Amino acid sequence: MALDSAQPHGIVRPSKAGAALYSVLVNIVLIAAKLLVGLLTGSVAILADAAHSFLDLSASIFAYAGIRTAAKPADEDHAWGHGKAENISSLIQMFLLGATCIAIVIESVRRLVVPGTVRVAWYSFVVVLAAVVIDIVVSRYLQGVSRAHGGSAALEADALHFSSDLWASLAVLAGITLVAVFNFQIADPLAGIAVAAIIGTTAIEQGRRTTQVLLDAMPDRATL
Length: 224
Hints:
two-stranded antiparallel sheet, 6 helices, Alpha-lytic protease prodomain-like, mainly alpha
């Protein structure tokens, strides 16, 4: 993990790029675990969560690229520097969220119309519960690094992805629990729709924040 040693009293802090790279690695692990379990069990909810994590991976890569670009000094073509590259990265993440949301809704509705059989196993719960814990830890870590650097649009967007993934994983947990305990098969696609709703809400909130910055909007009066 890259560290920034330019701190008083010998205190070191993780670099923004290092934090973004860390989130990339975490997402790769989450995708592999969720995708494997989703395919083994046939759970559209878990596969939707895997798609969400794949989206998070794309977002983390964009965040990393945006942070690296924003760190470049001003030049002849960019007299004010490249700082807004982070915000553009965040905007791209928003569109990825929206596209994934639509895809999950389509598949979940298809499962409601043509029901499938979900085979919930013990490892389903292990993976989803582990994802919940990881989402909490990584989201707080990214928020902490962002605050340590005086705010980072890319890291805050990345943290928002992990926070939404947390709620998505909880929805999946509820769905597979209903399937396992009551054999309520319809709970799985319903959980998938819940995941899509969470992703959509995240996309809207992220888009609102990012466009305000790109348009140089004034902060809310309550924050002044």
